[in-house]
Amino acid sequence: MILKCPGAQNFKQPKPEYMGCPFCSYEVEIWSDEIKATCPKCKKTVMRNSDKQSCLDWCKYAKECVGIVQYNKYKQNKNKYKLEKKI
pLDDT by residue (tens digit) across 77-87? Predict the structure, then answer.
């Protein structure tokens, strides 16, 4: 595993991020390696905007950098986002 890549830091050491629920404006915690969370107030699913590219989308060392488990989790979340966005 590569230790110095700053682009993958949020995947190697996830941290909580906060965003307002689009349904009720309550502050929702979503971890940096996750794509969605449930609002504790209104119980609706809140999704992070995953249209942005990450270094995991294009870097040839991505699997080595974050490890195969994190890499696969990222790809699965990205695909879930695309599917749910179409619905």
Answer: 787 766 666 55
Give the span between the Cα atoms of 26 and 40, in whole angstroms: 8
Rounded to a whole number, what is the largest CA-CA distance in the chain?
A: 41
Number of other residues whose CB lies within 10 A of the CB of residue 15 = 9
**Residue spans per domain, the chain:** 6-86
Neighbours of 6 (CB within 10 A): 7
One-letter-per-residue 3-state SS of 55-81:
HHHHCCCHHHHHCHHHHHHHHHHHHHH
User: Taking the CA atoms of the chain, what radius of gyration do you get in angstroms?
Assistant: 14
Token output for 83: 């599917």
Q: Tell the burial category of 66 from Cβ atoms under 10 Å away from its Cβ (0-12, 13-18, 19+).
A: buried
pLDDT tens per residue across span 58-71: 888 888 888 899 88
